[in-house]
Design a protein that fits this description.
96% helix
Length: 142
């Protein structure tokens, strides 16, 4: 933009040198060109300042978004860790319950087996007592 303005001013100056105008007129034309150039330069500076402000705001937003993303990532990691711990605890409970159930089943089966053995023993006792009683009655009859 500055190079374009300087070219325009140079062209005006060259044009003015060729014309046979009064110095006062030439000065007025140069002043107008300089004012125009100053306005354009001022606009360019203001535009650059606005762009800088927008860039700063965008950077601040990006940094805030990045911080938010980092926080969300940390929260997600914490949640996943807690979930993993909960799953491990649940698996341990299931295993303990399974072991407990197996132990209970073994106890029950041992009790049943003991009852069967006791029943067989008592049945065997009854048979022997009846045999003895039969022998006694047979001996008495003789």
């Amino acid at each position: 933009m500055k190079t374009l303005n300087s070219l325009l001013i140079n062209q005006h100056f060259i044009h003015l040198e060729k014309n046979n105008m009064s110095d006062k007129k030439k000065l007025e034309i140069l002043k107008k060109a300089l004012k125009k150039s100053k306005k354009e330069a001022k606009k360019a500076v203001e535009s650059a300042q606005k762009a800088t402000e927008k860039a700063k705001k965008a950077l601040a937003k990006a940094e805030a978004a990045e911080a938010s993303a980092q926080t969300a990532k940390k929260d997600l990691k914490k949640t996943l860790r807690a979930l993993s711990e909960a799953q491990a605890a649940q698996a341990a409970k299931k295993k303990a319950a399974k072991n407990s159930t197996i132990k209970k089943a073994k106890k029950v089966s041992k009790k049943k087996a003991a009852k069967k053995v006791a029943a067989k023993k008592s049945l065997a006792k009854k048979k022997t007592t009846t045999k003895k009683a039969a022998k006694k009655t047979a001996a008495k009859k003789k």
